What we know:
Blueprint: E1 2-3, E2 6-7, H1 8-32, H2 34-40, H3 43-68, H4 76-83, H5 85-105, H6 110-148
Antiparallel strand pairs: 1-2
Helix pairs in contact: 1-2, 1-3, 1-5, 1-6, 3-5, 4-6, 5-6
Amino acid sequence: MTINGLPAHALLVHLVVVLLPLTSVMAILGSVWPTAQRKFGFLTPLAAAGGVVVVPITIQAGLQLASALHLGAAIEEHEMLGKRVLPFAIALFVTTAAQWVYLRFVTRRPWLTVVIAALVIAAAIGTTVQVSLAGDAGAHQVWGSVANNP
């Protein structure tokens, strides 16, 4: 899979590593700062939904690239970590969407507000950590040999 002659994975991965951590920051800010929640509104769960859509496309493009380059076992760690991003992205979407619905349509209960915020923050941190781990493994695969052989 290519985009304008370039491997799609190399381009799409940048969308993932920007979109999901940015969405995570929005989710955390919206959970601890009511003004941010009002300002971001539906944008946070919408961005999280975008992450859920783009992650599988990026994974598929990565699998095709690895196959085309005959990387095999050399890329296994990155592949495994990359595949683990999707469940975290789904959790980020589900929690941010639930929080948005709760804050707009449900009578608030302080304890439930705190529980939902904690779940959103946990999903946001987990997503960012997983994206970072997968990205780091991929960067080492691509650039590690360059850095070790100046």
